[in-house]
Amino acid sequence: MKHILIVDDNKTNLVSARSVLNDIYKVTAVTMGKQALKFMENNSCDLILLDINMPEMDGFEVLRRIKANEKLAHIPVIFLTADNDAATESKCLEEGALDFIAKPFVAAVMRSRISRILESEDMKRQLADKLDRTIKEVTDIKSKSQQDALTGLWNRAYTEKAVNELISQGTRGALFMIDMDNFKAINDNYGHIEGDNTLKMFADTMRKYSKEGDVLCRIGGDEFVMFVNGVTSKSAVGNLAGDIISDLCYKIEQKDFKTNSSVSIGIAQTPDDGTDFNTIYNAADKALYYVKQNGKNSYHFFSEQREAENERSGNLVDLKYLREIMSRADSGKGAYMIDFDSFHHVYNFIKRLVDRGGYSVQTLLFTAVDKNGAHPDENEESIALEMMEQAIRTTLRRSDVSTRYSARQIVVILLNTDDKFGNAVAVRTIDCFHKLYTGNAIDFEYSISQMVQLEV
Asked: Which one of 23, 65, 294, 405 has the lowest number of neighbouring Cβ atoms within 10 Å?
């Protein structure tokens, strides 16, 4: 039964109203506004019949207090009044009442008006519930469209938007590019179901090390992104990356995969490495590539890579000096291993092949120069270096080797190549660069030298 609260200082009116409504509704009657407010502190009702003219607190004041209370404001109110003039009616509606009933009231009229308003309120609640359900369904659909179906992490599109919004609000943080080494071997050797379970384990581990405000994403395949919100200390970021790698590697080891799988992380920080998602994403990707090329199963900061390049760029080298510093660390004995940060190991490995005879190898050194003769703009120079690297990837063979020596120089090793072909490759690479590079401030010069046998 619907519950109606009647508030009227006239007990005769209360008795009369009870007799009219008792057989249809549960009725509670009080004689003062304060009693009504006290009753509603711990009780609920579906409608209030409220007398206007009462001592101590009139009906208008009672209604104002009801509307001011968030828990009570939704309860419909009908005023009871002996004044049936237009001014009273207008004030009743202005104060927030849904209707008014003139006293002495007519039983049929009272029942009809109460019934109409309760039916209307029920319909409003049903519509509101339906709207809430629809909004929830739409929200769920939208959320699912922004999530990775397998892991439940956010997808690339949502992550880009969320991270850009955080950065625009002045948030500082770090972007982790997390990749599983040799994941394909798990799918190939143990099946895609086991591979999917491993990816879910990755996602759960990321959740374990995240906090509210972080953004977790699966880019695709075995590539994940984690934006660590508010952590600016390099040591803290490094410790977190190390913990994630250790935990993931332990869990992979527990699965007893015979795939030599591990975890690599590239790290970029805001605002030092970029002030938008795409910039820090690309920076973290480059840092991840560095880890992949230097032993895997570790993490690397993009800033460290850039600092090392910038430090070297202060002192341009020629090929003779470059050959000397690359050759210093190689003993020439035993199996050749690629160190974490040493391209010169690759150089020395190829040098061994040359020393054994039968190989003609050319070394190219590309150097960025400002066409106006001034020191190049750092941002423009970075763009030009990226375009040159792309030109090298386009024009060189898979057997050739390239690395960025500094922020201004790129070294290329051309296998089984004579001087004539090496010069042709250099010219073709620079031509390709000119097609890719849309700026007009930077150009490249090159020098070339044959890698020769050591004298015995």
From this structure: 23
Long-range contacts of 188-194 (CB under 8 A, 24+ apart): 189/257, 189/258, 189/259, 190/257, 194/255
Q: List the beta bridge partners of residue 7.
A: 30, 50
- 280: Cβ contacts below 8 Å, ≥ 6 apart: 163, 175, 268, 269, 270, 273, 274
Compute the Cα dihedral for 315, 318, 321, 326 and give only its sign.
positive
What CATH topology corresponds to 3-126?
A: Rossmann fold (3.40.50)
Q: To which residue do tokens 């030092």 refer?
A: 272
Please indicate whether the domains covering 3-126 and 314-456 agree at the CATH topology level: no
For the chain, the structural domain boundaries read: 3-126, 156-311, 314-456
CA distances from 248 to 175, 224, 227, 297 (A): 18, 13, 18, 10
Amino acid at 324: E
Topology adopted by domain 156-311: Alpha-Beta Plaits (3.30.70)
Reported pTM: 0.48
Q: How would you write the pLDDT of the chain (456 residues) with one tens digit per residue?
A: 899 999 998 888 899 888 899 999 999 999 999 999 999 999 989 999 999 888 889 988 999 999 999 899 999 999 888 777 777 777 877 888 888 888 888 889 899 989 999 999 899 889 988 888 877 877 666 666 788 889 999 999 999 999 999 999 999 999 999 998 889 889 999 999 999 999 999 999 999 999 999 999 999 889 999 999 998 888 899 999 999 999 998 998 888 888 888 899 999 999 999 999 999 999 999 999 888 877 788 899 998 877 766 666 666 767 776 676 666 555 444 333 333 345 656 777 777 777 777 678 888 899 988 887 766 677 788 888 888 888 888 888 777 888 877 778 888 888 888 888 889 989 999 999 999 888 888 999 999 988 765 543
Residue 342, SS3 per DSSP:
coil
Tell me which residues are annotated as active site: 222
